[in-house]
């Protein structure tokens, strides 16, 4: 991306957000919407639903979604936080998540979904995130998400990207080092460093699957090596 | 922007492209807020407290119990009404044969069709273990097995609250259950040195897709904390097995050094034993260790006791008329202390997204909130265990009498320590003698935890005033006359028990340093993130090493090293900084904030031997929430001819 393209994206971004009705004024509306969503069938569904704020968000493709209903419910997901203008560290994380996406071969977008939520919704508008996603070659199963500042803050807290030290809590770089992973219908939720070896992260996910691979003799890789080698081949051909 | 451009810069020049992009992005970086700005905004006020959003209570960092008035769980208004559950001793299979297929040290190939409570049907259980046991034949194999236990991890209904106040207020817990007795909840296996046993653990947890009450995973790996065991039996984090499988955990119950530094064995009071008798241990516990899910699975209830006796050398015999004559039988009571939170229906509450640590607002003893225990007028041995998940505790008695402490981390001390209180980081244990004969019948007093902890990060080290909230258990002295054949108190307080193994006999051949810190909110050890495929150290069988553990401070970490107990050499570089309780064999050491008193320890150095068994073991933080966020490294004991030896 050249500078001109970049500035154009930033300029268009604010307008895009405003057009979709996001902002402080729409907060009350979004709370109301929470109550009008599908009524859960039983206590388990209620518990699953209560774990997540069903806030409205925008994907980097400009699509309006509900966090729980559209992104989380009945899905296997990876969730992290980022922000586009974050210096040295975030790009490394995003590159690592790209490697993770490659590890899963074609599964991301089919039965695994990846979500990168911005910590700076005021800057990371739809066009900005779109440019970011394209720059990192994010596939169709990987969404970069923005929303109102309050909704993002709520998500950040609910999802545990917080520090009880208020100074550290205001330091965004403290919230980008972890990645949450889970299989929502089974209510299995784990976490790992976002910069961990992507092969390892993929294994953590498989281990959690009822019929996934398992460590062999206490190790992650003897069996995994073969799989990821194939996946590397596949990735090489498609790029 | 076209796809073509991205591709041309992405492969090969990826890093440069990213750097260039980010350089442009930095053009709009805003000014950062200073600490003072934040304080002005009043942001400190809400930190750590209960936050309520959209009607749902959640705990970014639950900070309750003892420290504040916030109550999330249903209140306990009728304390001291239920009896303390006493862990029942498991019973071996009748005739010492398994009810299923016989053991096979390569892993059993036969299936075992039995009732699977987690799917409410019969099921062909298979053994999950595929690694053979080391030194199996050498240690007598099947013929030497003296007891075969059959346990199952399963979901049961358990009322943590007083049955009087909240009848049938059951939580769905996952515990170990003895299939050959009615032992349930917190159990106890009694074992003896030189008597190998097998604990066959069936995983009968709810099958896939069934309700887990919101947290926990139905895969288990019971770790026998800190037994000197082969890695196939140790219950390491990545040796977990699924619902519908079992695992034969072979516990040889043999002392460290038996195949290395003390091949000819040692003698204590004329009684010979294999290995070094000074490595005799006593109070273990076994708890789930499933990688990344240890915290929720242990919190669900997968934790019990394993008490190892040394009748072979007439030391800690399980008979108060012999050896050290410690109070035994029904007067030897393990107490598992763990804190929990409950929702309005009595179900345990857990937030799978927390990162710093979990502090429940209800502390329990043997899975009961504020129970009572009628004690007879005689001496008792009480084995305290802090089962976490994150809270540090400091047990004391409300009548200000001292404990006679005889063991630390399950290891008998050189000599008893007379102490007013005992601080226990998560997984630490303390065995004490309490003499109730000195109290008049009807006397009542409390076991308390007065240690302040207001965040999952760790304790402040301060002691709170005694109050309703600090009380864990009520002792009521009964008037029943009862025989006490244990040694008299002055003997128990002064006799030599197990002197510290002499480190000079096996001098350290290597020094290593492990620095625990965080990187963008993720844990790193020596600046590296945990990788389950990487072994960070290869100590050589039969040798010893000096390990320095460092922490940046600000947080408290109970660091646990599997395999062998260690000895502390120094805190913050000086042996003189060692606390009285550091002067013992340990398997957990507290570092960081308020490691000792209110003082922090930026670093500790310890001496550890690596003997007899070859294989991989972890070192990790036993604040299990930190552990599940990859605060861990793996290391491996190797023979001297291994290509990695000593690396």
Task: Explain what this protein looks like in three dimensions.
Chain B: Monomer. Chain B: It catalyses: 4 Cu(+) + O2 + 4 H(+) = 4 Cu(2+) + 2 H2O. Chain B: This is Multicopper oxidase CueO. Chain B: One of its GO terms (molecular function) is copper ion binding. Chain B: Its EC number is 1.16.3.4. The complex is a heterodimer of chains A (239) and B (647). Chain A is 46% helix and 16% strand. The longest helix of chain A is centred in the last third of the chain and has 18 residues, at 221-238. In chain A, a hairpin with a 4-residue loop joins strand 1 and strand 2. Chain A has a single domain (3-196), classed as 3-Layer(aba) Sandwich (Glutaredoxin). Chain A is α/β, with parallel strands linked by helices and 239 residues long. In chain A, helix 1 crosses helix 6 (126-135) and helix 5 crosses helix 9 (198-208). Residues 1-37 and 223-239 of chain A have low confidence and may be disordered. Chain A has a seven-stranded mixed beta sheet, with helices on both faces. Chain B is mainly beta and 647 residues long. Chain B has three domains: 88-319, Immunoglobulin-like, CATH 2.60.40.420; 332-494, Cupredoxins -  blue copper proteins (Immunoglobulin-like, Sandwich); 503-637, Sandwich (Immunoglobulin-like), CATH 2.60.40. In chain B, the strands form nine sheets. A seven-stranded mixed beta sheet of chain B has the order 20-19-18-22-27-24-25. Chain B is built from seven helices and 40 strands.
Provide a short characterization of the protein structure.
By secondary structure, chain A is α/β, with parallel strands linked by helices.
């Amino acid at each position: 991306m050249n500078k001109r393209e970049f500035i154009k994206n930033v300029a268009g971004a604010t307008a895009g957000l405003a057009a979709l009705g996001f902002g402080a004024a729409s907060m009350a509306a979004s709370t109301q919407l929470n109550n009008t969503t599908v009524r859960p069938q039983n206590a388990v569904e209620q518990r699953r639903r209560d774990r997540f704020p069903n806030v409205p968000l925008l994907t980097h493709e400009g699509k309006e979604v509900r966090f729980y209903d559209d992104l989380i419910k009945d899905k296997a997901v990876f969730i992290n936080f980022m922000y586009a203008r974050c210096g040295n560290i975030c790009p490394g994380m995003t590159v690592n998540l790209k490697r993770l996406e490659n590890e899963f071969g074609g599964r991301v977008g089919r039965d695994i979904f990846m979500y990168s939520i911005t910590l700076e919704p005021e800057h990371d508008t739809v066009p900005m995130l779109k440019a970011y996603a394209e720059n990192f070659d994010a596939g169709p199963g990987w969404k970069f998400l923005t929303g109102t500042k309050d909704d993002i803050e709520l998500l950040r807290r609910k999802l545990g990207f917080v520090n009880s030290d208020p100074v550290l809590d205001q330091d965004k770089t403290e919230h980008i080092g972890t990645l949450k992973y889970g299989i929502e219908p089974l209510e299995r939720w784990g976490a790992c460093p976002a910069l961990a070896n992507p092969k390892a992260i993929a294994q953590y996910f498989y281990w959690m699957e009822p019929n996934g691979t398992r460590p062999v003799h206490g190790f992650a890789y003897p069996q995994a090596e073969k799989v990821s080698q194939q996946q590397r081949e596949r990735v090489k051909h498609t790029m | 922007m076209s796809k073509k451009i991205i591709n041309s810069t992405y492969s090969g020049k990826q890093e440069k492209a990213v750097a260039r992009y980010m350089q442009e992005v930095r053009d709009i970086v805003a000014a950062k807020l200073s600490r003072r700005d934040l304080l002005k905004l009043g942001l400190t006020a809400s930190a750590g407290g209960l936050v309520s959003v959209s009607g749902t209570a959640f705990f970014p960092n639950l900070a309750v119990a003892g420290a504040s008035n916030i109550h999330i769980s249903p209140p306990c208004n009728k304390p001291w009404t239920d009896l303390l559950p006493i862990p029942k001793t498991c019973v071996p299979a009748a005739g010492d044969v398994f009810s299923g297929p016989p053991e096979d040290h390569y892993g059993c190939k036969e299936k075992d069709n039995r009732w699977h409570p987690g799917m409410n049907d019969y099921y062909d259980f298979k053994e999950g273990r595929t690694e053979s046991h080391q030194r199996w034949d050498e240690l007598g194999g099947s013929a030497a097995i003296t007891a075969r236990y059959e346990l199952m991890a399963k979901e049961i209904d358990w009322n943590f609250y007083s049955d009087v106040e909240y009848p049938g207020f059951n939580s769905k817990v996952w515990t170990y259950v003895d299939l050959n007795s009615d032992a349930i909840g917190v159990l106890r296996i009694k074992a003896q040195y030189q008597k190998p046993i097998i604990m066959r653990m069936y995983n009968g947890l709810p099958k896939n897709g069934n309700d887990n009450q919101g947290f926990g995973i139905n895969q288990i790996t019971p770790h026998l904390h800190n037994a000197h065991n082969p890695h196939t039996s140790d219950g390491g984090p990545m040796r977990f097995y699924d619902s519908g499988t079992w695992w034969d955990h072979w516990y040889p119950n043999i002392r460290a050094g038996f195949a290395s530094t003390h091949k000819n064995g040692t003698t204590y009071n004329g009684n010979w034993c294999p290995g070094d008798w000074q490595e005799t241990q006593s109070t273990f516990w076994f708890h789930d260790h499933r990688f990344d899910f240890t915290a929720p699975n242990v919190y669900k209830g997968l934790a019990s006791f394993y008490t190892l006796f040394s009748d072979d050398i007439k030391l800690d015999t399980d008979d108060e008329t012999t050896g050290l004559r410690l109070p035994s039988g029904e007067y030897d009571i393990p107490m598992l202390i763990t804190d929990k939170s409950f929702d309005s229906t009595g179900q345990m509450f857990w937030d799978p997204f927390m990162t710093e640590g979990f502090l429940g607002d209800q502390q329990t003893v043997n899975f009961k909130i504020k129970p009572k225990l009628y004690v007879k007028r005689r001496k008792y041995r009480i084995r305290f265990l802090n089962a976490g998940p994150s809270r540090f505790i400091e047990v004391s008695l409300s009548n200000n009498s001292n404990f006679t402490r005889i063991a630390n981390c399950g290891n008998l001390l050189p000599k008893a320590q007379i102490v007013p209180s005992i601080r226990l980081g998560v997984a630490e244990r303390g065995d004490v003698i309490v003499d109730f004969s000195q109290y008049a019948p009807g006397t009542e007093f409390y076991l308390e935890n007065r240690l302040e902890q207001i965040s999952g990060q760790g304790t402040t080290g301060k002691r709170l005033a005694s109050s309703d909230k600090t009380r864990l258990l009520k002792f009521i002295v009964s008037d029943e006359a009862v025989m006490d054949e244990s040694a008299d108190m002055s003997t128990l307080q002064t006799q030599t028990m197990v002197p510290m193994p002499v480190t000079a006999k096996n001098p350290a051949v290597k020094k290593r340093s492990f620095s625990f810190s965080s990187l963008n909110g993720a844990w790193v050890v020596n600046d590296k993130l945990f990788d389950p495929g990487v072994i960070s150290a290869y100590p050589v069988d039969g040798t010893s090493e000096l390990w320095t553990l460092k922490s940046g401070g600000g947080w408290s970490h109970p660091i646990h090293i599997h395999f062998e107990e260690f000895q502390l050499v120094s805190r913050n570089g000086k042996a003189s900084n060692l606390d009285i309780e550091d002067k013992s064999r340990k398997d957990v050491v507290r570092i960081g904030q308020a490691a000792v008193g209110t003082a922090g320890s930026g670093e500790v150095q310890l001496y550890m031997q690596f003997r007899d068994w070859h294989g991989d073991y972890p070192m990790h933080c036993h604040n299990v929430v930190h552990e599940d966020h990859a605060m861990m490294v793996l290391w491996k004991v190797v023979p001297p001819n291994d290509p990695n030896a000593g690396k």
